[in-house]
Predict the 3D structure of the following.
Amino acid sequence: MSMTTSLTVPKTGFPGLIENWRSDLLSGFLVFLIALPLCLGISMASGFPPIAGIITAIVGGLVVSRISGSFVTINGPAAGLIVVILASVQSLGHGDNMAGYRLTLAAIVVASILQILMGIFKAGKLSAFFPSPVVHGMLAAIGIIIMVKQFHTLLGVKPAAKSLLGSIAEIPHSIISLNPEIALIGGLGLALLIIWAFIKNPVIKMIPAPLLVVLLGLFLGQQFNLDTTHEYTVGEHAFKLGPNFLVAVPGNFFASFSFPDFSKIAEVDFWVNVITIWLVGSLESLLSASAVDKLDPYKRNSDLNKDLTAVGVGNLISGLLGGLPMIAEIVRSSANINNGAKTGWANFFHGACLLIFVALFPAVISKIPLTALAALLVFTGFRLASPKEFAKTLAVGVDNFAVFVITILGVLATDLLIGVAIGIVAELLIHLSRGLKPDNVFSLAYHVHQSNEDTYHIQISGAAVFSNYMAIKSLLAEYPEGKTIFFDLAEAELIDHTVMEFIHHYAEEYTHNGGKCEIVGLDSHTAYSDHHLAARHKVTT
């Protein structure tokens, strides 16, 4: 018997707590060590008070873990939402960060209500409408923006530029005028993260790299006496140091709560931010929850609509208390699985540990150098936009890569929503140039034939692309397990990468769960690249 089939699926609810509390408590504690610095850094990079990210993770752990449709995901603030929230704070506050913060809290509350409704009405499948290269392009663009913005903080320099392009242009100036001691703390932290990524020893890897970066920052911050205002000289240049280079948190956790300001609810700009927070947050959460399912050694499948509703409830509470929006966060969830988590109680324990720490030890948080948190975010941004992501996208096909790059440039030149829309239009134009008929853009032609009680043949004709396959996704969600399914693509004139990826993953998952699923009829198709999931078209003879 294989290792996978011999695993006994853990119980859920209170029986699961009794059965697995040791492994879940240990994993929750280890994830808390990773989450603490990331929550602080993400919050500050988003234009929110540092403690706001902690509030989010506490709500995600204590509340969302109890009503979620997933099993081992960790809910909390994510780097992918930094750009959205910072843009909201700046556009709604018009230069007043505190006003922008409270107005953004109101936008989060309204967006969370839309998210709850989306889950209740089982609209989680709408995430399918975003083509794969556009989603990856959006995330890569977010990574680039995070790196650019946080690089200045890492060097201990405050850029004068407000725009992204201005921040990029100021990088050489920041390097020349860096604050040596601050840059040393950030640079060593970044170097530590890079080295840790290459370590393979599982025992050493149990020590969270973000924790080491913070401990290093705390040690060097004390050596450089950052908590008192003073000057030091290097050569002929004088540099200032002081508490403004440290995280600022209230001495009492309950003084950290802020409440939303709904005064701009009738304005268009407010609703633009609501829609952006809602769409990007929902999309990232659904994608992350699906990705975590693939890592789960027990191969459990999350109820994505229930999960989206739970995250919406969490965001509603978080927004009312002064926190950031949350998603199912993939890096912390992956660490949770690697640390041996069995159930959602690990998420609960991670939230409980955060609450206990910030309630008892706020003074420790107030000694963390901002540059140490910036190092974590620069590294996170690099992972989102790494050369590997570019290479992986190019391997699927030049068309895929073109949409990926167009989306990145669109986001960098405009904003997140417009950039994503540009990417979607570019993908559609490529499909239209390849023969996609206008009346087929949102309509998929398919026929289901049942040859016997246990065998289904799904015949697809015309074009199967990202914008029209939602119907087939909904149909498959209702299919019972343990049957035989054939995807017959012989009559499909065009199949894009997003649909190929979906069918391939569905077939893998369905087969793993005890059924049989095969893709047939691709013999007369030509792929646009050598990749097995590349877009392809039918060759007419």
In short: The chain has a mean pLDDT of 93. Residues 496 and 535 are 4 Å apart (CA to CA). The chain has three domains: 11-380, 386-433, 439-538.
